[in-house]
């Protein structure tokens, strides 16, 4: 069942929603705030809903109707409105782009799972509910954990994968967060937390971060609510389970058999998921490429949205390496 945004007010009244390895160093570009949103932009596109296993999942789709959809998986406590609308608009110039709230997040119903495997199961069910049998994945941070897991669980569903600011199971520095990082990740002022976590201390990076946060304020109607306390707790448990070191060696061997083309992206100074993990992924996947952005941290794709969209587009539009 697919529900158009025109029915959102009725749905809100009648349903219970969730509460509030080639390395390229790219030159910086202007962090100017995007123009006012249009009806077809990421900031103005309608919310839609589809039934998945008895629960309604919220999603948005922008870009052309034809082509392999690029499906985005967000970071810790991230909702659809935490994506950079400039990045989404740039990605959607040449392909359909889908963002969604997984189970229990934002506008989607249900209880948020606490493992990557369960989140990947829900993501696969969501894609099938949309009658999609072949997609590209874009996983950011813990969304990258889910994308990696989905690739292992449903390899025939996935054409290509972009992994951003993420790492393998049990990756370097992923077992415990520093007190500063842990505090910023859950603080009530999510804007201040993201500015600290996603960007480096340099004046240029901080300025780019402020521009990014301003862009995320563009949407003023049908806004996604903040992640609930249950979602934050579940995401934390999932991140802790994924970060345990015991399974790292076996996991790297396992993904070494995956022939799907993978693009790994990160900033050179990631304080959340250390950049060494980007190298580990690029080395483990046999058909991987690596891009690092300069003077950038965990949110490198928000510091360089146009460059990211360009690089992702080149990767997705290129000939498939290995088996199709």
Structural account:
With 324 residues, the protein is α/β, with parallel strands linked by helices. It has one domain: Rossmann fold, CATH 3.40.50. It is 37% helix and 15% strand. It contains twelve helices and nine strands. It has a nine-stranded mixed sheet, with helices on both faces. β6, α4 and β7 form a beta-alpha-beta unit.
Key terms for this structure?
single chain, 324 residues, alpha/beta, Rossmann fold, 9-stranded mixed sheet, 12 helices, 15% strand
CATH evolutionary superfamily: Alpha/Beta hydrolase fold, catalytic domain
Pattern of helices and strands: EHEEEHEHEHEHHHHHEHEHH
Number of helices: 12
The biggest sheet, with number of strands, parallel, antiparallel or mixed sense and barrel status, is: 9 strands, mixed
- State Rg: 18 Å
Percent range of helical residues: 25-40%
Sum up the overall morphology in one term.
Answer: globular
Q: What number of domains? A: 1
Instruction: Trace the largest sheet across and list its strands.
Output: 1-2-3-5-4-6-7-8-9
Strand share of the residues? 5-15%
Task: Tell me the span between the first and last alpha carbons.
Answer: 31 Å
Structural class: alpha/beta
Could you list the spans in which at least 5 consecutive residues all have pLDDT below 50? 1-39
In the CATH scheme, what's the topology name? Rossmann fold
Please give the number of β-strands. 9
Q: What is the residue-mean pLDDT, rounded to a whole number?
A: 85
Query: What is the name of the CATH class?
Result: Alpha Beta
CATH architecture: 3-Layer(aba) Sandwich
């Amino acid at each position: 069942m697919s529900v158009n945004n025109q029915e959102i007010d009725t749905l809100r009244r009648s349903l219970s929603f969730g509460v509030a390895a080639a390395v390229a160093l790219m030159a910086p570009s202007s962090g100017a705030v995007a123009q006012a949103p249009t009806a077809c932009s990421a900031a103005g596109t309608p919310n839609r809903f589809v039934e998945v296993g008895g629960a309604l999942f919220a999603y948005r789709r922008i870009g052309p109707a034809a082509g392999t959809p690029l499906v985005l998986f967000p970071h810790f406590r991230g909702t659809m409105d935490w994506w950079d609308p400039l990045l989404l608009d740039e990605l959607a110039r040449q392909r359909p782009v889908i963002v969604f709230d997984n189970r229990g997040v934002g506008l989607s119903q249900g209880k948020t799972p606490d493992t990557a495997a369960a989140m990947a199961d829900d993501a696969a069910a969501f894609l099938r509910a949309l009658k999609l049998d072949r997609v590209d994945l874009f996983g950011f941070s813990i969304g990258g954990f889910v994308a990696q897991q989905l690739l292992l669980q449903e390899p025939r569903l996935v054409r290509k994968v972009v992994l951003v600011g993420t790492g393998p199971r049990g990756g370097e520095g992923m077992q415990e967060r520093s007190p500063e990082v842990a505090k910023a990740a859950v603080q009530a002022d999510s804007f201040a937390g993201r500015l600290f976590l996603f960007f480096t201390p340099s004046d240029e990076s901080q300025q780019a971060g402020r521009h990014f946060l301003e862009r995320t304020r563009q949407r003023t109607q049908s806004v996604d609510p903040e992640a609930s306390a249950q979602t934050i707790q579940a995401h934390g448990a999932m991140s802790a389970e994924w970060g345990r070191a015991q399974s790292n060696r076996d996991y790297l061997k396992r993904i070494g058999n995956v022939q799907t083309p993978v693009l790994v992206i990160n900033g050179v100074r990631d304080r959340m998921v250390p950049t060494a993990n980007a190298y580990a992924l690029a080395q483990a996947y046999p058909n991987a490429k690596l891009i690092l952005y300069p003077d950038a941290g965990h949110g490198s794709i928000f510091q360089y949205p146009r460059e990211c969209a360009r690089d992702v587009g080149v990767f997705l539009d290129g000939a498939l390496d290995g088996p199709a």
